[in-house]
Every structure is written in C-alpha cells, then in structure tokens.
C-alpha cells in the first residue's frame, strides 16, 4: 500500500492547497528541485513503513484513503522503542528543509504542544487520536475518510474514551469533522510573527470528540 499511500497524500495536498503545508513550504529560501520532491516522497514512505510496523496505518483500497491511529495500545518491545528514537534522525534530514522551513515547523510543533497541554493535558493518555487522514482526490466523495474515522470513534466509544485530532485546513475540514462529533477546543495561529510570511496567519484547530454512551452488549463486543 505504501506507493499508493504516498501518491495519495502528495496529490491531496497539492489539489487542496492545504494552508498549513503552504505555510511550511512557501519560504524565500525554499528548494523546489526534483531532488527535494523525491526526498519528500522517500520520507513519507519511511513514515508509512514505520506506521505499518507499529500497526497504526489504516487504508482503504490499497492506500486510496489513509489514516494513522493506534487502536491497540500494546506494550512496546525494546526494538520498537529504539525505532522510535532513531526514526526522526533518519527521516527528518531526508526532507531537506531550509532554515526558514525548519523554523516554521518548530513553531507549529511548539504551539500545538502548548495547545494540547492546555486543553487536553494528562487526559491525552486515555484518548485515541486521528492523524494523516487523507483521501486521493480521484476517490473522494465515497465516504472512505468517514469510515476510517468511525472505526476509531467506535473503538473509543467502547472504551468510554474521547478522540482528538489536529485540523490544518480549517475552512475545508471543520464541517466534516463536526459531522463526526469533533469540535474545536483550541485554535492556534501560525505566521503572525513571521516577517517572511505575507499572507494572513494560518489557523490550525485542536478538535475533540467526546465518547458516546454504548450499550453493555456493544461494550462486550456482542453487537
């Protein structure tokens, strides 16, 4: 599924013109070479390979729609912990980010961490998460993304857990996530203090879906 999944995420961000991805990429010192594009695809392939190893990558039709979510919180083996430590040192350099791009990615990570700490806190340890939810443009409109998210929220409901996610394309995605029970608990803005960014600040939402009550039969897996 990996080659198709890579095509899916690259094509989807290009077609949607995702504001966050544009913020990360559109710097005065950016590198738009073919080597840079190839390095991005390789980094994504490694990320998906790791997610397969972690059993957190879910796909429909061999990668036409993808999502990363850990539904099985099994204890990690020493080799898994080693991979977690080593992986960023392998994957990050492949992205060939410029100095300004690294600065913007760091800004996002710091602001989102602060948002999560302030709005979710320790509760995050008993929540499921949805990330990297993307459907290829040619296969959108079939309910694939909805089905993937519902797989996570159904499991969360059985456990009595909430689910959280970060939404970058706020104008496009909010209505979709609202329809699945996710609502914004905090919003961060990127680029408000970046003199090289000439567009309005880019919003990104932290969204949470509270668990729905389930019957005893459903909790027992009998329904």
TrEMBL record:
It comes from the Eukaryota. InterPro entries: Acyl_CoA_acyltransferase (IPR016181), GNAT_dom (IPR000182), Trichothecene_AcTrans (IPR052523). Gene3D superfamilies: 3.40.630.30. CDD domains: NAT_SF (cd04301). This is N-acetyltransferase domain-containing protein. It comes from Hermanssonia centrifuga. Residues 66-203 form the N-acetyltransferase domain. One of its GO terms (molecular function) is acyltransferase activity, transferring groups other than amino-acyl groups.
């Amino acid at each position: 599924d990996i080659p198709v999944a890579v095509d899916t995420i690259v094509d989807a961000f290009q077609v949607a013109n995702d504001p966050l991805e544009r913020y990360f990429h559109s710097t005065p010192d950016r590198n738009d070479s073919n080597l840079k594009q190839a390095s991005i695809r390789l980094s994504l392939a490694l990320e998906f390979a790791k997610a397969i190893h972690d059993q957190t990558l879910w796909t429909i039709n061999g990668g036409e729609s993808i999502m990363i979510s850990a539904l099985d919180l099994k204890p990690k083996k020493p080799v898994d912990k080693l991979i977690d430590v080593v992986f960023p040192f392998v994957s990050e350099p492949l992205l060939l980010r410029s100095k300004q791009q690294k600065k913007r990615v760091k800004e996002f990570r710091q602001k989102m961490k602060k948002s999560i700490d302030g709005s979710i806190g320790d509760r995050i340890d008993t929540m499921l998460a949805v990330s990297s939810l993307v459907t290829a443009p040619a296969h959108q409109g079939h309910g694939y993304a909805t089905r993937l998210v519902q797989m996570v929220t159904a499991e969360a409901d059985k456990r009595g857990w909430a689910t959280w996610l970060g939404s970058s394309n706020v104008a496009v995605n909010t209505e979709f996530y609202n329809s699945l029970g996710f609502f914004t608990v905090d919003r961060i803005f990127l680029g408000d203090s970046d003199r090289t960014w000439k567009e309005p600040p880019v919003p990104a939402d932290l969204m949470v879906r509270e668990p729905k009550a389930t019957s005893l039969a459903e909790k027992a897996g009998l329904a």
